[in-house]
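Quick log. Single chain, no ligands specified.
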Amino acid sequence: MKFNFFKKKKQELPVEEGNEGNEGNEGNEGNEGNEGKEGKEEKVKSKEKKIEKEKIPDKSKTKTPEPSIKSDLEKKLPKAKDLEKLKNLKKKNILSKKKKRNKRSYSIRGFVKSIDLQKSLERAGMVTLDARKIAKKLFKFNVYLCIVLTVVVIILNIAFQKSFGNLVVFLLGFWITVFFILLALLWMVYLIYLDLKIFQRKQAIEAVFPDFLQLTSANISAGMPIDQALWYAVRPSFGVLAKEIEDVAKNTMAGEDLADALTDFANKYDSKIIQRSVNLLLEGMAAGGEMADLLSKIALNIEETKILKKEMAANVTTYVIFISFATIGAAPVLFGLATELLVIIQNITSSLGSTMGASSSFFSFSFSADSIKLSDFRIFSYLMLTISAFSSACIVAIIKKGRIKEGLSNIPIFIAVSLILYTFSTMIIHAAFGTFF
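-> predicted structure:
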C-alpha cells in the first residue's frame, strides 16, 4: 500500500510542475515579444533623431571664431596697401599692353588695320584683292622709285663734278625725309582713288534704287513674300545694286537673318537714302503692315527729292556762271595784262636808266629793270590761276550738287581752261601792244 501511495504522489507532482512551467513559459514568451517590439521602435526613433541632428547644424559649431583665429585670418587676407600695389601693377600691365599695340600699329599690318583697308576694298568692289599685298606693293614701288632717283642724282653729280661728301649728305637726307614723304603721297593718292570708286558705286546704287523698290512692291502685291520679292526684283541692268542684292541673298541662304543682311548692306555705303529706306522697310516688316504701299511711297519720295535737288541747282545757276566766268575768263586775261605791263615797265626803266646816266652829271638816278623778274611773275600767275580754278570748281560743286565729290571732274577742266586762256591772252596782248613799246 505504501508503495502505491508514493507512486501516486510521484505521478501527481510532475503533472503540477509541468503545468506551472507551461504557464511560466507562456508568460515569458508574451513579455519577451512585447519587449522586442518596443525595442525595435525605440531603435528606429533613435536613428531618426540622429538623422535629424545631422541635418540641423549645431549652433555651437557655427559660432564666431575665437580672437586667435581672427588674427590668423587677418594675417592671411591682403591689406589695403597690398591692394593698392596690385592695382598699380595691373595699370602698368595695361599700359604696357597698350604700348605694345601702339608699336604694332607702326608696322604694315597695324597701319592696314588702322585704316581698315580691306573693308574699303570690299566697298570699292575689289573683293579679290588683299590689303596686305597692296601695302607691300606700295612700299616696294616707293623703294624702287627712290632708288631710281638716287641713281639720277649720282649721275648728275658725276656730270657736274661735285664733291663726294655733299653727295653723301644729300642722299642721307633724301632717304630720311623724301622716302617717307613719297610713301605718304602714294598712300594718299591710293586712298583718294578708293574713295572715288566707293562714291561712284554709291551714286550708281542711288540712281537705280527707286526702280528696284517699285519692282519689289509689284512682286509683293502679286503675292510673293518679302525675301522672294527682293530677289526677283533684281535686273542685270541695275549693275552694282544687283551684285549687292545677290550678296544679301547668299547671306540669308547661309543662315543669316534677313534684317541683319539688309542692315549690313545699308551700312556698307555712306548713303542716307539707302539707310532711311532700309530702316523703313525693316520697321514695316516688324510692324506687319502693307509692304507694297510702303515701298512704292519710299520710291516716290526718293524721286521727289531728286527733282527738288535739280530745281535748287537750276535756281543757283546765276551764281555758278558768275564764279566760273570770274575764274576761267576774267582772271587769265587780267594776269596776261599784268605780265605785259611788267614787260612794258621793264623796257621803260631800262631806257630811262641809260638816258639819265648820260645826261645828269651832278645827280645820278639808277633805274633797275631786274627788280621783278618776268619768269618769277609767270610762275606766280600760274600758281594763282591753278589755286583759284581749284577753289572755284569746289564752290560750284557745292552750290550745284551739295558735295565736292560730285564736282571733282570739273577741277581739271577749270585748271586747264584757265591756264590755256592765260597763255593765249599774254600772246595776244603782247602782239597788240608790243609794237608801241
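Residues 164-221 form the longest helix (58 residues).
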